[in-house]
């Protein structure tokens, strides 16, 4: 392959050159020959480059260099021309610049000498006027002189100018001294009439001269204030008897005389915008506050005297109130002005303790009041409003005493504890004694109703206002502080007494009126009842509900809030329903021991069917009577339509459960499958075994095990779920203790066969609740049931009205 080819392979050539070992001896000559050939090739390559390109490049470089040199020459010419032009212009304007400088210097010199002339003239004018004490005539010249001397401050290094400035400064000092001397004489004599100066000369002359010098003005004011208060500070020193805490009122009286004397005799000699009365009062505040800090620490930390402390505090508050009225509270807006009463802040716990006597006297007065004659138409004790007015007053006074800071937070905590204590006292000594004791014999129901409503409405008002009081206290606390609900316990106590009063109205006043109807129910010959008309007891109940003079009718419109009226109506409905159910259970419920064939059932199944039909008719009568009763009372209390609808819905739901139960009493037991179909339809296919057994017992089914098993087989055939998954029938759930008592009695049967049936086939076991109930001899409910205590106390906060007591009057 040719060596000049691009893809030439040198390996064959190298193998031929170095093919033998002897060729290595000639390696040096081979390298030398190769290097010589390399240099030769490089020379040939260089020689082979085109010569015309090199010449063109050289030519272009020469042309560029020539153009650059030409450009530099032109720039040099322009620079020389510019410098020559500048020199020419400078020569032309040289005289003009000198003329401007001369004119400016001349103008400044003229102004300087004019000002100097005026300064000299006004200086001598002021000097002459000062000698004659014509401050008012001196005012224009003095103002101009004071302004000009400021102009010459920059030229004090000139001896003559420095001399004149010094003379003016001495004149200003002399003027201040002369003004001070005049005021010294004036404040000493305290009468402008005894001097040769009128008020205008001092106010518009002497004082106006000092307006040009803030330092001189401040010195005169401080001197005048100290001069006016000098005698006071000398008389009322903390180490003298006159300056003691007991004589604090004398200090205030003396200062009032000083202030009034200044206003009547000297106020017109000072400019109004200087606010001299406020400055005098501010200084007095500072002096008295400093003295009080010493006196209070000395007299209260060792043997605190509450009487002395309260006297001093009351006197101070009255004085500060007087000053506030006199200056339209302007003093409170001044910076760095601390109230005198601030000195009492560390000891204000004594002030709260002093209010114990006030509250004790109020409680005694409340106890002595005739509660009925003192109460308003809303049946709220006026003493309760007076109690919270007192609290509001104490809170306002506390906030006036302590404006802000940790001291105020601590006082509010103390005040909260104080309020809490007396709220409990009011509850225990005023409200609770008005309640009729439980199980007490009531001779006068009208009076008992009035006092009970008085307690309920007043306790509700207090409960509402307690929360407003708490919110008001929290409002004034620092952002990071909380009261930790100090009133929760007492709020619950007031809620509990509301609940107790409601229970008293229902169980002690309303329930006895219903007991006659329940006695009529018990005295009815139910064995031979004929379904023809309403039973006698229903007529009695309707008459009670319609009686315009009944306690029930008189009670409902006298609640302080409509909410309680509706709540009371709902509880009356429950009371009537529970009484009705109690009578039914007492009539139908079997008595233990169960499954004793020697003790036959009181009522036969057929008799229970008649009873069930009669009770259904009576139930409809009661339902209509209660609906009419609710309508009448809704008109009486002007209740809302929504509340009226809710109470009617409550009636319908209560009687719907009762009607379903009474229908079960009328279903025949002859054919188990048919009975089971009817039972499932009426109970919405409820599979609760206890409910099923209880219904059969109430229906009067004899204790014949075969009949029970036959009915149970029908019950099981349709039972596709575990009975434990089904709750009691709603009617039995309403009186669950009675159902559990029945379960206990049923599971306590002594007969082994029955016991096996109950525990294995019916899967019923004894209950602890039933054991406790059976101790009463098998009775489920008393003929006149008493409602369980109401749980209103947890909901009182939700019942509050929006019109807050503590938000009245701003």
From TrEMBL:
Coiled coil: 82-109
InterPro entries: Vps53 (IPR039766), Vps53_C (IPR031745), Vps53_C_sf (IPR038260), Vps53_N (IPR007234)
Example GO BP: retrograde transport, endosome to Golgi
Membrane association type: Peripheral membrane protein
Keywords linked to the UniProt accession: Coiled coil, Endosome, Golgi apparatus, Membrane
Annotated ranges, domain Vps53 C-terminal: 613-701
UniProt keyword Transcription regulation, yes or no: no
Chain intervals for the UniProt region annotation (Disordered): 768-794
Pfam families given in the database record: VPS53_C, Vps53_N
GO cellular component, one term: GARP complex
Ranges of Low complexity composition bias in the record: 770-782
Residue intervals of the Vps53 N-terminal domain: 8-370
Subcellular location: Endosome membrane; Golgi apparatus, trans-Golgi network membrane
Protein family (similarity comment): Belongs to the VPS53 family.
PANTHER family from the UniProt entry: VACUOLAR PROTEIN SORTING-ASSOCIATED PROTEIN 53 HOMOLOG (PTHR12820:SF0), VACUOLAR SORTING PROTEIN 53 (PTHR12820)
Protein name: LAME_0D07382g1_1
């Amino acid at each position: 392959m040719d060596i000049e080819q691009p893809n030439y392979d040198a390996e064959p050539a190298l193998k031929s050159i170095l093919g033998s070992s002897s060729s290595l001896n000639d390696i040096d000559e081979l390298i030398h020959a190769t290097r010589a050939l390399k240099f030769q090739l490089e020379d040939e390559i260089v020689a082979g480059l085109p010569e015309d390109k090199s010449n063109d490049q050289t030519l272009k470089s020469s042309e560029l260099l020539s153009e650059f040199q030409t450009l530099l020459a032109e720039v040099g010419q322009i620079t020389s021309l510019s410098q020559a032009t500048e020199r020419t212009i400078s020569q032309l304007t040289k005289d003009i610049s000198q003329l401007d400088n001369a004119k400016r210097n001349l103008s400044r010199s003229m102004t300087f000498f004019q000002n100097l002339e005026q300064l000299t003239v006004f200086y001598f004018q002021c000097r002459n006027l000062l000698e004659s004490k014509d401050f008012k005539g001196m005012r224009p010249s003095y103002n101009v002189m004071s302004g000009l001397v400021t102009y010459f401050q920059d030229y004090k290094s000139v001896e003559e100018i420095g001399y004149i400035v010094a003379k003016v400064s001495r004149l200003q000092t002399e003027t201040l001294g002369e003004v001070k001397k005049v005021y010294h004489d004036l404040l000493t004599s305290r009468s402008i009439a005894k001097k040769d100066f009128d008020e205008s000369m001092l106010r518009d002359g002497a004082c106006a001269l000092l307006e040009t010098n803030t330092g001189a003005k401040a010195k005169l004011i401080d001197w005048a204030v100290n001069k006016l208060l000098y005698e006071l500070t000398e008389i009322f020193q903390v180490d003298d008897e006159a300056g003691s805490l007991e004589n604090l009122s004398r200090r205030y009286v003396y200062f009032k005389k000083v202030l009034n004397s200044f206003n009547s005799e000297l106020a017109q000699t000072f400019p109004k915008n200087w606010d001299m009365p406020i400055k005098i009062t501010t200084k007095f505040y500072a002096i008295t506050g400093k003295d009080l800090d010493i006196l209070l620490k000395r007299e209260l930390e060792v043997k605190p005297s509450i009487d002395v402390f309260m006297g001093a505090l009351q006197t101070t508050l009255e004085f500060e109130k007087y000053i506030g009225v006199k200056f339209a509270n302007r003093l409170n807006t001044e910076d760095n002005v601390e109230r005198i009463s601030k000195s009492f802040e560390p000891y204000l716990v004594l002030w709260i303790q002093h209010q114990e006597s006030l509250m004790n006297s109020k409680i005694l007065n409340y106890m002595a009041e005739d509660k009925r004659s003192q109460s308003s138409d809303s049946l709220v004790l006026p003493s309760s409003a007076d109690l919270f007015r007192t609290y509001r007053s104490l809170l306002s006074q506390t906030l006036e005493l302590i404006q802000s800071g940790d001291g105020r937070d601590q006082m509010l905590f103390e005040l909260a504890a104080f309020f809490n204590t007396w709220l409990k006292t009011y509850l225990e000594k005023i409200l609770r004694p008005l309640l009729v004791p439980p199980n007490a014999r009531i001779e006068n129901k009208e009076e008992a109703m009035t006092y009970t409503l008085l307690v309920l409405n007043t306790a509700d008002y207090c409960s509402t206002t307690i929360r407003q009081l708490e919110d008001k206290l929290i409002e004034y606390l620092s952002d990071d502080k909380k009261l930790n609900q100090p009133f929760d316990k007492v709020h619950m106590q007031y809620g509990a007494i509301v609940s107790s009063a409601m229970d008293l109205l229902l169980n002690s006043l309303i329930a006895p009126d219903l007991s006659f109807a329940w006695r009529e129910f018990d005295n009815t010959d139910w064995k031979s009842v004929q379904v023809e008309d309403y039973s006698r007891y229903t007529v009695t109940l309707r008459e009670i509900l319609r009686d315009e003079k009944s306690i029930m009718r008189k009670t409902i419109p006298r609640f302080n809030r409509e909410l309680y009226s509706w709540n009371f109506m709902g509880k009356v409905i429950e009371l009537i329903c529970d009484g009705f159910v109690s009578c039914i259970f007492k009539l139908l419920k079997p008595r233990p021991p169960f499954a004793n064939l020697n003790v036959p059932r009181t009522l036969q199944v057929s008799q229970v069917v008649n009873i069930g039909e009669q009770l259904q008719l009576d139930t409809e009568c009661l339902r209509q009577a209660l609906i009419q009763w609710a309508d009448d009372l809704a008109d009486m209390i002007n209740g809302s339509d929504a509340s009226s609808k809710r109470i009617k819905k409550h009636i319908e739901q209560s009687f719907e459960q009762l009607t379903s139960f009474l229908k079960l009493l009328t279903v025949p037991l002859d054919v188990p499958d048919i009975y089971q179909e009817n039972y499932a339809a009426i109970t919405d296919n409820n599979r609760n075994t206890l409910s099923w057994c209880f219904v059969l017992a109430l229906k009067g089914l004899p204790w014949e095990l075969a009949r029970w098993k036959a009915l149970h087989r029908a019950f099981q055939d349709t039972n596709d779920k575990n009975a434990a998954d089904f709750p009691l029938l709603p009617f039995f759930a309403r009186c669950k203790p009675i159902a559990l008592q029945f379960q206990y009695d049923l599971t306590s049967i002594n007969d082994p066969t029955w016991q096996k049936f109950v525990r294995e086939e019916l899967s019923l076991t004894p209950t602890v609740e039933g054991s406790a109930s059976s101790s009463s001899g098998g009775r489920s409910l008393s003929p006149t049931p008493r409602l369980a205590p109401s749980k209103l106390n947890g909901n009182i906060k939700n019942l509050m009205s929006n019109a807050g007591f503590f938000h009245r009057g701003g």
